[in-house]
Amino acid sequence: MPDIKHFDPDAALDQVVRLFWERGADVTGIADVVQATGLSRSSLYATFGGKERLQAAALRRYLERQSRPVFAALAADGRGLPAITGFFERLVAARCTGEHARWGCLVTNTHTGPARAIPEIQQVLDAHHTELRAAMRAALETARDRGQVGPGLDPHAAAETLALLAYGVNLRSRAGAGAGDLLAGVRAVLDGFTRIEER
Amino acid sequence: MPDIKHFDPDAALDQVVRLFWERGADVTGIADVVQATGLSRSSLYATFGGKERLQAAALRRYLERQSRPVFAALAADGRGLPAITGFFERLVAARCTGEHARWGCLVTNTHTGPARAIPEIQQVLDAHHTELRAAMRAALETARDRGQVGPGLDPHAAAETLALLAYGVNLRSRAGAGAGDLLAGVRAVLDGFTRIEER
DNA sequence: CCTATCTTGGACTGGTCGTTCCAAGTTAGA
DNA sequence: TCTAACTTGGAACGACCAGTCCAAGATAGG
After folding, report:
1. CB neighbour class for A50 (10 Å; exposed up to 12, middle 13-18, buried from 19)
2. Is residue B40 less than 8 Å (CB to CB) from chain A?
3. Average pLDDT over residues B32-60
Protein backbone atom coordinates (compact mmCIF):
# COMPACT_ATOMS: atom_id res chain seq x y z
CA MET A 1 0.00 0.00 0.00
CA PRO A 2 2.42 2.66 1.10
CA ASP A 3 4.75 4.59 -1.09
CA ILE A 4 8.38 3.65 -0.89
CA LYS A 5 11.48 5.79 -0.26
CA HIS A 6 12.70 7.50 -3.39
CA PHE A 7 16.33 7.44 -2.28
CA ASP A 8 18.92 5.17 -0.63
CA PRO A 9 19.25 6.05 3.07
CA ASP A 10 22.58 4.22 3.24
CA ALA A 11 24.14 6.28 0.47
CA ALA A 12 22.71 9.47 1.97
CA LEU A 13 24.27 8.69 5.35
CA ASP A 14 27.63 8.17 3.67
CA GLN A 15 27.34 11.64 2.21
CA VAL A 16 26.53 13.03 5.65
CA VAL A 17 29.58 11.31 7.10
CA ARG A 18 31.80 12.98 4.51
CA LEU A 19 30.21 16.35 5.20
CA PHE A 20 30.48 16.15 9.00
CA TRP A 21 33.97 14.69 8.79
CA GLU A 22 35.41 17.39 6.56
CA ARG A 23 33.63 20.47 7.84
CA GLY A 24 32.59 19.49 11.35
CA ALA A 25 29.05 18.56 12.35
CA ASP A 26 28.43 21.59 14.54
CA VAL A 27 29.31 24.05 11.83
CA THR A 28 27.30 22.21 9.18
CA GLY A 29 23.66 23.23 8.85
CA ILE A 30 20.71 21.10 7.81
CA ALA A 31 20.60 23.15 4.62
CA ASP A 32 24.11 21.91 3.79
CA VAL A 33 23.02 18.34 4.41
CA VAL A 34 19.99 18.84 2.17
CA GLN A 35 22.18 20.17 -0.61
CA ALA A 36 24.87 17.48 -0.29
CA THR A 37 22.46 14.56 -0.15
CA GLY A 38 19.98 15.98 -2.65
CA LEU A 39 17.02 14.95 -0.52
CA SER A 40 14.53 17.22 1.20
CA ARG A 41 14.16 18.30 4.79
CA SER A 42 11.05 16.14 5.13
CA SER A 43 12.77 12.96 4.00
CA LEU A 44 15.76 13.76 6.18
CA TYR A 45 13.73 14.18 9.35
CA ALA A 46 11.48 11.22 8.53
CA THR A 47 14.47 8.96 8.00
CA PHE A 48 17.03 10.04 10.57
CA GLY A 49 15.15 12.22 13.08
CA GLY A 50 16.69 15.53 14.17
CA LYS A 51 20.26 16.69 13.85
CA GLU A 52 21.49 15.00 17.03
CA ARG A 53 20.21 11.64 15.85
CA LEU A 54 21.73 12.25 12.44
CA GLN A 55 25.07 13.13 13.97
CA ALA A 56 25.00 10.02 16.13
CA ALA A 57 24.13 7.87 13.13
CA ALA A 58 26.94 9.39 11.09
CA LEU A 59 29.40 8.82 13.92
CA ARG A 60 28.35 5.18 14.25
CA ARG A 61 28.66 4.74 10.51
CA TYR A 62 32.16 6.23 10.61
CA LEU A 63 33.19 3.87 13.39
CA GLU A 64 31.82 0.87 11.50
CA ARG A 65 33.11 1.71 8.05
CA GLN A 66 36.32 3.64 8.71
CA SER A 67 37.73 2.74 12.12
CA ARG A 68 36.62 -0.81 12.87
CA PRO A 69 38.05 -2.48 9.75
CA VAL A 70 41.44 -0.94 10.43
CA PHE A 71 41.29 -1.98 14.08
CA ALA A 72 40.33 -5.51 13.07
CA ALA A 73 43.22 -5.72 10.62
CA LEU A 74 45.62 -4.51 13.29
CA ALA A 75 44.38 -7.00 15.87
CA ALA A 76 44.51 -9.89 13.40
CA ASP A 77 47.93 -8.99 12.02
CA GLY A 78 50.38 -11.59 13.28
CA ARG A 79 53.56 -9.58 12.82
CA GLY A 80 53.57 -7.75 16.16
CA LEU A 81 55.45 -4.45 16.18
CA PRO A 82 55.60 -4.12 12.37
CA ALA A 83 51.82 -4.27 12.36
CA ILE A 84 51.70 -1.28 14.70
CA THR A 85 54.28 0.58 12.66
CA GLY A 86 52.25 -0.09 9.53
CA PHE A 87 49.09 1.10 11.23
CA PHE A 88 50.62 4.45 12.09
CA GLU A 89 52.33 4.88 8.72
CA ARG A 90 49.02 4.37 6.96
CA LEU A 91 47.29 6.63 9.49
CA VAL A 92 49.69 9.51 8.94
CA ALA A 93 49.48 9.05 5.16
CA ALA A 94 45.68 9.11 5.25
CA ARG A 95 45.61 12.18 7.50
CA CYS A 96 48.11 14.23 5.52
CA THR A 97 47.58 13.19 1.89
CA GLY A 98 44.89 11.95 -0.44
CA GLU A 99 41.16 12.43 -0.48
CA HIS A 100 40.74 12.98 3.26
CA ALA A 101 43.88 15.03 3.90
CA ARG A 102 43.51 17.44 6.84
CA TRP A 103 40.07 16.05 7.72
CA GLY A 104 41.41 14.43 10.87
CA CYS A 105 39.25 11.68 12.39
CA LEU A 106 35.53 12.24 12.86
CA VAL A 107 35.59 10.55 16.28
CA THR A 108 38.60 12.57 17.42
CA ASN A 109 37.05 15.79 16.14
CA THR A 110 33.83 15.05 18.03
CA HIS A 111 35.69 14.82 21.36
CA THR A 112 35.92 18.58 21.75
CA GLY A 113 32.50 19.65 20.45
CA PRO A 114 29.23 20.11 22.30
CA ALA A 115 27.91 16.80 20.98
CA ARG A 116 30.28 14.94 23.30
CA ALA A 117 27.74 15.46 26.09
CA ILE A 118 24.96 13.58 24.25
CA PRO A 119 24.82 10.06 25.74
CA GLU A 120 24.21 8.41 22.37
CA ILE A 121 27.38 10.05 21.05
CA GLN A 122 29.50 9.75 24.18
CA GLN A 123 28.89 6.04 23.91
CA VAL A 124 30.43 5.92 20.43
CA LEU A 125 33.46 7.89 21.59
CA ASP A 126 34.05 5.40 24.38
CA ALA A 127 33.46 2.42 22.09
CA HIS A 128 36.01 3.81 19.63
CA HIS A 129 38.58 4.21 22.36
CA THR A 130 37.94 0.77 23.81
CA GLU A 131 38.20 -0.91 20.43
CA LEU A 132 41.31 0.98 19.37
CA ARG A 133 43.01 0.16 22.64
CA ALA A 134 42.01 -3.50 22.40
CA ALA A 135 43.47 -3.77 18.92
CA MET A 136 46.70 -2.14 20.06
CA ARG A 137 46.85 -4.47 23.03
CA ALA A 138 46.40 -7.53 20.82
CA ALA A 139 49.22 -6.40 18.55
CA LEU A 140 51.44 -5.69 21.56
CA GLU A 141 50.78 -9.10 23.04
CA THR A 142 51.74 -10.63 19.73
CA ALA A 143 54.91 -8.55 19.82
CA ARG A 144 55.62 -9.73 23.35
CA ASP A 145 55.09 -13.38 22.39
CA ARG A 146 57.51 -12.85 19.54
CA GLY A 147 60.06 -11.26 21.86
CA GLN A 148 60.02 -7.96 20.00
CA VAL A 149 59.37 -5.78 23.03
CA GLY A 150 61.14 -5.28 26.31
CA PRO A 151 60.25 -7.65 29.17
CA GLY A 152 58.95 -4.88 31.39
CA LEU A 153 56.35 -3.70 28.90
CA ASP A 154 52.74 -3.76 30.11
CA PRO A 155 50.59 -4.37 27.01
CA HIS A 156 47.54 -2.80 28.61
CA ALA A 157 49.26 0.47 29.55
CA ALA A 158 51.25 0.60 26.32
CA ALA A 159 48.03 0.13 24.34
CA GLU A 160 46.59 3.19 26.07
CA THR A 161 49.74 5.10 25.14
CA LEU A 162 49.42 4.22 21.48
CA ALA A 163 45.72 5.05 21.44
CA LEU A 164 46.41 8.49 22.95
CA LEU A 165 49.19 8.96 20.42
CA ALA A 166 46.78 8.19 17.58
CA TYR A 167 44.43 10.89 18.89
CA GLY A 168 47.37 13.29 18.96
CA VAL A 169 48.20 12.45 15.34
CA ASN A 170 44.57 12.92 14.28
CA LEU A 171 44.31 16.22 16.11
CA ARG A 172 47.53 17.79 14.91
CA SER A 173 47.01 16.61 11.34
CA ARG A 174 43.72 18.51 11.14
CA ALA A 175 45.57 21.69 12.08
CA GLY A 176 48.16 21.14 9.38
CA ALA A 177 51.00 19.25 11.10
CA GLY A 178 53.67 17.84 8.81
CA ALA A 179 53.75 14.12 8.09
CA GLY A 180 57.46 14.02 8.93
CA ASP A 181 56.97 15.36 12.44
CA LEU A 182 54.10 12.98 13.12
CA LEU A 183 56.06 9.98 11.86
CA ALA A 184 59.07 10.94 13.97
CA GLY A 185 56.83 11.08 17.04
CA VAL A 186 55.46 7.66 16.26
CA ARG A 187 58.87 6.16 15.58
CA ALA A 188 60.26 7.38 18.90
CA VAL A 189 57.62 5.70 21.02
CA LEU A 190 57.90 2.42 19.13
CA ASP A 191 61.68 2.54 19.50
CA GLY A 192 61.10 2.93 23.22
CA PHE A 193 58.97 -0.20 23.29
CA THR A 194 61.39 -2.23 21.19
CA ARG A 195 63.61 -4.81 22.94
CA ILE A 196 67.21 -3.60 23.03
CA GLU A 197 68.61 -6.57 21.13
CA GLU A 198 66.15 -5.92 18.32
CA ARG A 199 67.51 -2.46 17.62
CA MET B 1 38.79 65.35 27.61
CA PRO B 2 37.61 61.88 26.76
CA ASP B 3 35.81 59.52 29.02
CA ILE B 4 37.71 56.52 30.28
CA LYS B 5 36.83 52.79 30.16
CA HIS B 6 34.48 51.84 32.97
CA PHE B 7 35.87 48.29 33.20
CA ASP B 8 39.13 46.36 33.20
CA PRO B 9 39.78 44.82 29.74
CA ASP B 10 42.29 42.40 31.24
CA ALA B 11 39.85 40.98 33.74
CA ALA B 12 37.15 40.79 31.07
CA LEU B 13 39.44 38.79 28.77
CA ASP B 14 40.13 36.37 31.60
CA GLN B 15 36.40 35.80 31.90
CA VAL B 16 36.18 35.19 28.16
CA VAL B 17 38.99 32.65 28.37
CA ARG B 18 37.11 30.73 31.04
CA LEU B 19 33.92 30.82 28.99
CA PHE B 20 35.52 29.69 25.72
CA TRP B 21 37.61 27.10 27.52
CA GLU B 22 34.74 25.44 29.34
CA ARG B 23 31.97 25.65 26.75
CA GLY B 24 33.87 26.04 23.49
CA ALA B 25 34.21 29.31 21.59
CA ASP B 26 32.11 28.27 18.59
CA VAL B 27 29.13 27.30 20.70
CA THR B 28 29.34 30.44 22.84
CA GLY B 29 27.43 33.48 21.59
CA ILE B 30 28.28 37.12 22.07
CA ALA B 31 25.25 37.33 24.35
CA ASP B 32 26.92 34.78 26.65
CA VAL B 33 30.10 36.84 26.66
CA VAL B 34 28.11 39.97 27.49
CA GLN B 35 26.44 38.22 30.39
CA ALA B 36 29.64 36.63 31.74
CA THR B 37 31.75 39.78 31.56
CA GLY B 38 28.98 42.16 32.57
CA LEU B 39 29.92 44.66 29.90
CA SER B 40 27.90 45.67 26.89
CA ARG B 41 28.13 44.76 23.23
CA SER B 42 29.40 48.24 22.42
CA SER B 43 32.30 48.06 24.86
CA LEU B 44 33.07 44.53 23.72
CA TYR B 45 33.32 45.42 20.05
CA ALA B 46 35.12 48.69 20.77
CA THR B 47 37.72 46.91 22.89
CA PHE B 48 38.30 43.57 21.18
CA GLY B 49 36.78 43.86 17.71
CA GLY B 50 34.60 41.07 16.39
CA LYS B 51 34.31 37.50 17.60
CA GLU B 52 37.26 36.16 15.63
CA ARG B 53 39.54 38.78 17.13
CA LEU B 54 38.15 38.06 20.58
CA GLN B 55 38.70 34.34 20.16
CA ALA B 56 42.26 34.92 18.99
CA ALA B 57 42.92 37.23 21.94
CA ALA B 58 41.49 34.68 24.37
CA LEU B 59 43.63 31.94 22.83
CA ARG B 60 46.77 34.05 23.12
CA ARG B 61 45.90 34.87 26.70
CA TYR B 62 45.44 31.17 27.46
CA LEU B 63 48.82 30.35 25.94
CA GLU B 64 50.52 33.11 27.94
CA ARG B 65 48.86 32.54 31.28
CA GLN B 66 48.12 28.81 31.32
CA SER B 67 50.49 26.98 28.99
CA ARG B 68 53.68 29.00 28.83
CA PRO B 69 54.43 29.10 32.58
CA VAL B 70 54.10 25.33 32.76
CA PHE B 71 56.31 24.88 29.71
CA ALA B 72 58.90 27.21 31.19
CA ALA B 73 58.91 25.32 34.47
CA LEU B 74 59.37 22.05 32.60
CA ALA B 75 62.24 23.36 30.50
CA ALA B 76 63.98 24.88 33.52
CA ASP B 77 63.51 21.83 35.74
CA GLY B 78 66.91 20.20 36.13
CA ARG B 79 65.71 16.76 37.15
CA GLY B 80 65.24 15.26 33.68
CA LEU B 81 62.73 12.42 33.48
CA PRO B 82 61.13 13.15 36.88
CA ALA B 83 60.32 16.63 35.58
CA ILE B 84 58.43 15.09 32.66
CA THR B 85 56.65 12.64 34.93
CA GLY B 86 55.65 15.51 37.20
CA PHE B 87 54.43 17.53 34.23
CA PHE B 88 52.08 14.75 33.15
CA GLU B 89 50.90 13.95 36.66
CA ARG B 90 49.93 17.56 37.19
CA LEU B 91 48.38 17.67 33.73
CA VAL B 92 46.16 14.66 34.33
CA ALA B 93 45.19 15.97 37.75
CA ALA B 94 44.24 19.38 36.31
CA ARG B 95 42.26 17.79 33.46
CA CYS B 96 40.29 15.34 35.62
CA THR B 97 39.82 17.11 38.95
CA GLY B 98 39.46 20.57 40.42
CA GLU B 99 38.10 23.76 39.00
CA HIS B 100 38.83 22.99 35.34
CA ALA B 101 37.97 19.29 35.36
CA ARG B 102 36.77 18.03 31.96
CA TRP B 103 37.48 21.39 30.31
CA GLY B 104 40.41 19.93 28.38
CA CYS B 105 42.90 22.45 26.98
CA LEU B 106 41.67 25.49 25.07
CA VAL B 107 44.41 25.15 22.46
CA THR B 108 43.73 21.45 21.97
CA ASN B 109 39.99 22.07 21.74
CA THR B 110 40.54 24.73 19.10
CA HIS B 111 42.39 22.28 16.84
CA THR B 112 39.18 20.66 15.59
CA GLY B 113 36.94 23.73 15.26
CA PRO B 114 36.39 26.05 12.31
CA ALA B 115 38.59 28.72 13.89
CA ARG B 116 41.67 26.62 13.14
CA ALA B 117 41.58 28.02 9.60
CA ILE B 118 41.94 31.65 10.75
CA PRO B 119 45.62 32.61 10.28
CA GLU B 120 45.75 34.59 13.52
CA ILE B 121 44.58 31.50 15.40
CA GLN B 122 46.48 28.89 13.42
CA GLN B 123 49.58 30.79 14.41
CA VAL B 124 48.81 30.33 18.11
CA LEU B 125 48.17 26.61 17.64
CA ASP B 126 51.56 26.22 15.98
CA ALA B 127 53.28 28.36 18.60
CA HIS B 128 51.77 26.22 21.35
CA HIS B 129 53.03 23.05 19.70
CA THR B 130 56.49 24.44 19.06
CA GLU B 131 56.87 25.67 22.64
CA LEU B 132 55.53 22.48 24.18
CA ARG B 133 57.87 20.38 22.06
CA ALA B 134 60.83 22.62 22.87
CA ALA B 135 60.18 22.29 26.60
CA MET B 136 59.91 18.51 26.29
CA ARG B 137 63.11 18.44 24.28
CA ALA B 138 64.96 20.46 26.90
CA ALA B 139 63.83 18.10 29.64
CA LEU B 140 64.79 15.08 27.54
CA GLU B 141 68.24 16.47 26.86
CA THR B 142 68.69 16.99 30.58
CA ALA B 143 67.60 13.38 31.08
CA ARG B 144 70.11 12.23 28.47
CA ASP B 145 72.91 14.22 30.09
CA ARG B 146 72.03 12.57 33.38
CA GLY B 147 72.03 9.12 31.79
CA GLN B 148 68.36 8.52 32.58
CA VAL B 149 67.30 7.57 29.07
CA GLY B 150 68.47 4.93 26.63
CA PRO B 151 71.40 5.82 24.37
CA GLY B 152 69.38 5.48 21.18
CA LEU B 153 66.81 8.07 22.18
CA ASP B 154 66.42 11.03 19.83
CA PRO B 155 65.34 13.99 22.01
CA HIS B 156 63.75 15.77 19.07
CA ALA B 157 61.56 12.87 18.00
CA ALA B 158 60.77 11.85 21.58
CA ALA B 159 59.70 15.42 22.33
CA GLU B 160 57.22 15.22 19.47
CA THR B 161 55.93 11.96 20.93
CA LEU B 162 55.34 13.51 24.34
CA ALA B 163 53.66 16.57 22.84
CA LEU B 164 51.27 14.37 20.85
CA LEU B 165 50.64 12.35 23.98
CA ALA B 166 49.72 15.52 25.88
CA TYR B 167 47.18 16.37 23.18
CA GLY B 168 45.76 12.87 23.54
CA VAL B 169 45.43 13.35 27.29
CA ASN B 170 43.75 16.73 26.83
CA LEU B 171 41.36 15.37 24.24
CA ARG B 172 40.30 12.23 26.06
CA SER B 173 39.96 14.02 29.39
CA ARG B 174 37.37 16.38 27.90
CA ALA B 175 35.29 13.38 26.89
CA GLY B 176 35.46 11.90 30.39
CA ALA B 177 38.47 9.57 30.34
CA GLY B 178 39.57 8.23 33.72
CA ALA B 179 42.70 9.63 35.36
CA GLY B 180 43.97 6.10 35.94
CA ASP B 181 43.90 5.18 32.27
CA LEU B 182 45.59 8.41 31.26
CA LEU B 183 48.32 8.00 33.86
CA ALA B 184 48.94 4.42 32.78
CA GLY B 185 49.36 5.59 29.21
CA VAL B 186 51.85 8.22 30.29
CA ARG B 187 53.78 5.83 32.51
CA ALA B 188 54.21 3.29 29.70
CA VAL B 189 55.82 5.72 27.29
CA LEU B 190 58.18 7.09 29.93
CA ASP B 191 59.13 3.53 30.91
CA GLY B 192 59.96 2.96 27.27
CA PHE B 193 62.28 5.95 27.25
CA THR B 194 63.98 5.01 30.52
CA ARG B 195 67.45 3.45 30.41
CA ILE B 196 67.29 -0.23 31.30
CA GLU B 197 69.63 0.03 34.28
CA GLU B 198 67.44 2.75 35.76
CA ARG B 199 64.39 0.53 35.95
C1' DC C 1 29.93 75.59 34.16
C1' DC C 2 30.60 74.38 29.38
C1' DT C 3 31.69 71.46 25.76
C1' DA C 4 34.28 68.23 22.97
C1' DT C 5 35.17 63.40 23.22
C1' DC C 6 34.77 59.06 24.48
C1' DT C 7 31.93 55.12 26.65
C1' DT C 8 27.83 52.73 27.43
C1' DG C 9 23.16 50.50 27.23
C1' DG C 10 20.03 48.63 24.43
C1' DA C 11 17.26 48.53 20.36
C1' DC C 12 17.72 46.86 15.84
C1' DT C 13 19.43 44.56 11.41
C1' DG C 14 19.74 40.83 8.05
C1' DG C 15 20.84 36.27 8.10
C1' DT C 16 20.95 31.44 9.60
C1' DC C 17 19.67 27.90 12.76
C1' DG C 18 16.83 23.42 13.69
C1' DT C 19 12.29 22.09 13.30
C1' DT C 20 7.33 21.75 11.92
C1' DC C 21 3.67 21.53 8.83
C1' DC C 22 0.81 20.76 4.89
C1' DA C 23 -0.66 20.26 0.22
C1' DA C 24 0.67 17.64 -3.74
C1' DG C 25 2.57 13.50 -5.57
C1' DT C 26 3.38 8.46 -5.59
C1' DT C 27 2.48 3.86 -4.65
C1' DA C 28 0.20 -0.68 -4.30
C1' DG C 29 -3.42 -3.56 -2.55
C1' DA C 30 -8.63 -3.97 -2.97
C1' DT D 1 -10.02 2.64 -10.64
C1' DC D 2 -10.42 3.90 -6.02
C1' DT D 3 -8.28 4.79 -1.73
C1' DA D 4 -5.42 4.39 2.35
C1' DA D 5 -0.63 4.95 3.48
C1' DC D 6 3.37 6.99 2.75
C1' DT D 7 6.91 10.29 0.63
C1' DT D 8 8.21 14.64 -0.99
C1' DG D 9 8.98 19.68 -1.92
C1' DG D 10 8.81 23.87 -0.07
C1' DA D 11 6.91 27.45 2.76
C1' DA D 12 6.86 29.01 7.29
C1' DC D 13 8.08 29.17 12.42
C1' DG D 14 10.37 31.15 16.46
C1' DA D 15 14.92 31.38 18.28
C1' DC D 16 19.35 32.76 18.00
C1' DC D 17 23.52 34.50 15.56
C1' DA D 18 27.28 38.30 14.82
C1' DG D 19 27.39 42.86 14.09
C1' DT D 20 25.69 47.98 13.75
C1' DC D 21 23.91 52.17 15.35
C1' DC D 22 22.53 55.98 18.13
C1' DA D 23 20.89 58.53 21.92
C1' DA D 24 22.12 59.11 26.71
C1' DG D 25 25.69 59.24 30.16
C1' DA D 26 30.30 60.16 31.89
C1' DT D 27 34.53 62.61 31.84
C1' DA D 28 38.09 66.20 32.04
C1' DG D 29 40.30 70.29 30.05
C1' DG D 30 39.06 75.21 29.41
Report:
1. exposed
2. no
3. 97
